[in-house]
Amino acid sequence: MAADMPALVVSPDLIRNPVxxxxxxxxxxxxxxxxxxxxxxxxxxxxxxxxxxxxxPVAPAARVPAAPTGAGxxxxxxxxxxxATKAMPAAAPVPTRPxxxxxxxxxxxxxTEISAVRISGTRAVELVADGDAELQRGEMLLTAxxxxxxxxxxxxxxxxxxxxxxxxxxxxxxxxxxxLGERTGSFDAPRYSIVRTRxxxxxxxxxxxxxxGGRASVLYFEGENQYRAxxxxxxxxxxxxxxxxxxxxxxxxxxxxxxxxxxDSTVVFQGVPLFWMPWAEFPLAGQRQSGVLPxxxxxxxxxxxxxxxxxxxxxxxxxxxxxxxxWMSQRGLQLGGEVRYMGETxxxxxxxxxxxxxxxxxxxxxxGSLQHQQWITPALYGSLDLNGVSDDDxxxxxxxxxxxxxxxxxxxxxxxxxxxSEWWSASALVQSYQTLNPDPDETVTTPYRRLPQLQxxxxxxxxxxxxxxxxxxxFVNFSHPDEDNPDATRFVAYPQLSLPIxxxxxxxxxKIGVHYTSYDIDRDPTATLRDSITRSIPIVSIxxxxxxEREANFFGRDVIQTLEPRLxxxxxxxxxxxxxxxxxxxxxxxxxxxxxxxxxxxGSDRIANANQLTAAVTSRLINPETGAEWMKxxxxxxxxxxxxxxxxxxxxxxxxxVENETARTSKQAxxxxxxxxxxxxxxTLESLWQYNPRDDRTERFNATLRxxxxxxxxxxxxxxxxxxxxxDLDISGQWPLGGRWYGVTRLTHSLEEDRLTEAxxxxxxxxxxxxxxxxxxxxxxxxxxxxxxxxxxLELNDLASIGTSPVNLIKRSVPGYGKINEPGGxxxxxxE
Length: 832
Fold this sequence. Notes:
Elements: H1 32-37, E1 43-46, H2 72-85, E2 113-116, E3 118-122, E4 126-137, E5 140-150, E6 155-166, E7 169-179, E8 184-188, E9 191-198, E10 208-215, E11 218-222, E12 226-234, E13 244-254, E14 259-269, E15 272-283, E16 291-292, E17 296-300, E18 304-308, E19 311-316, E20 319-328, E21 332-342, E22 346-355, E23 365-377, E24 380-389, H3 394-398, H4 402-405, E25 409-418, E26 424-435, E27 449-460, E28 468-479, E29 487-498, E30 501-503, E31 506-522, E32 532-546, E33 548-554, E34 557-572, E35 586-587, E36 601-602, E37 610-622, E38 629-640, E39 650-651, E40 657-658, E41 671-680, E42 683-692, E43 697-710, E44 713-722, E45 726-738, E46 741-750, E47 755-766, E48 770-780, E49 786-796, E50 800-803, H5 807-813
Parallel strand pairs: 1-2
Antiparallel strand pairs: 2-4, 3-4, 4-5, 5-6, 6-7, 7-8, 7-9, 8-11, 9-10, 11-12, 12-13, 13-14, 14-15, 16-19, 17-18, 17-49, 18-20, 19-20, 20-21, 21-22, 22-23, 23-24, 24-25, 25-26, 26-27, 27-28, 28-29, 29-31, 30-31, 31-32, 32-34, 33-34, 34-37, 35-36, 37-38, 38-41, 39-40, 41-42, 42-43, 43-44, ...
């Protein structure tokens, strides 16, 4: 929430604090009127064109009496002058009236200071300051050609070139009348600018300033932080020539609630009225509030013309809801809703969509989703993630987002995690999925349900002799909707002991453990496979590494070069496992993360036999001053001393061997080589190469070249290759086209299938206080179907986002993309 800043910071006690008059003429004589003003409680100084003289306030006991009449007048005037000049500091000559921002020392918070070329007035009635007049109280500064200050009512009247400044807030116009202590009054025909700080929407984001302003026929001060204007405009653009603004016959600005109310209002963009509202609320600095949001408009070949008009309901500071009617020309009317809530120990999001009858299918179509997170106690955390749709084609038919349209398994789970101990933790999980299969020609695997899964982990690194102890265990009850896949329970316990030895420049860590597993499988009565299976597998490993450093110079650059060799030996005993189904286990992708792991597989259904050594070396070039890594090169290979005997193959309930892989017989694995770093100014390269020395061929190769010389300037070229399955060329980027225009694009071409699998093209225009975006998106949902979408968005900074935003799509598709306005969002007129 934006920090509060009063428009007029004035203490109501100021006029009760007596101060001394400041008035000078040449020869340092105080005029009778200035002397009379000395007892008014107002600090007055008369400014001559060539000099400014200041007088410190006199304590109440030393107040100068009113000037006598007759023969004693001259003597009294002299006495007053003498008293006033005793504490008078030297003053620098000032050829012209100083600017308000540099008008010298501010008066104390309990003082009001008035200065002008001429000052006149009577005690306790009014003071008239004429010619370059200033009135300052605390941080508030009022300047004008002429000022009248009336102490009894604490009222200031200003005429001619009136300017009011308070912090960074500023107003100017021909005349104003303000009761300083009450913050009431009026300003005629003002030009106003009010700055507030918007707190970040997400933790970690920086706060940002929102500068809102406009013009009015008259602006009324109605208390601290409260304004009302007639025939007014408001915008976050330049006040003098705004590209967009809200125009209203009557407008209220409440900076306590950070909310504006416009009556008989029109949003105008480039002189064109966009929409009229008889009554509307709008945010002044990002405050959420209820209201109809501007519509989102789009088109796709699966929905046709797509129009959504959301209504936002700000239920409470920690609860809100959005209700969204959506009309699709090819599908019909859909109703959607989302409720968000948050407390000190919990937060969540509930959303739903309902299409009573799809014009294309004639069926009812629905979506539901719930995400909830909660700290039940400081040591106990729980979460829910529930998702579901009415049919397999829901996302493909009704979504224009490729990442959503390609979903096939919708997660449904509840989780508890206990972390109340320094050396052990526990968790419980209930998990299932809704599996979607929109393409009947393709088979989608349904994962096993975990009903439930219980886990316990422990670690004690402080045992005698430097030993470390670790324990990992779990119990899972697996269930599957397909009767051909048997249900089962599995218990796993894996105790481990290690002895880390670390010295300067090297380390070595021997480790030993036993992986114990037991299964109780609900087999078909006719099956010949075992129902109960136990498996104990000893595992021994030694991990070691060294680090060498030297100073070097590459390409004219002083660097620190490292050489980091690493050896990892692993010995795992063989156990027969083909009678164990695959409940949650799959083969890891081969890469640098996997070659130093104990197993070829994720999950516990397969523990591969091993007698192998992995050798790798890493070299880095490091900036000696900052420690930043400039380049990194990696090279590694695994060597086998026995053949692979454990695979992911298994026998099904009918006794048929399901073959997923062929056992390895070679004595060495593929060679892995990687590079990442800066190869030229603003240019980086990342690549990974997996080379098969046995068959002299490349198994996998990925490379990404990025040129990014500045914000909103990025060009990416990527090539991805996996033998027999993938060969893609990807080009993406964002670049200024000239003036304030920017272009964005992404093209992904499958060289394997010789077709364009995804294409994005768009343009953006940054108007300073607004942005317009137009983008087209084409993606292949499967081998035969293509979805096309058009996005058009007008974003009025800090006010409105009208149309369908392509920002999330572009961020996902164009690495390094920079949102050219980054105004933050608000839930009155939409959030990215």
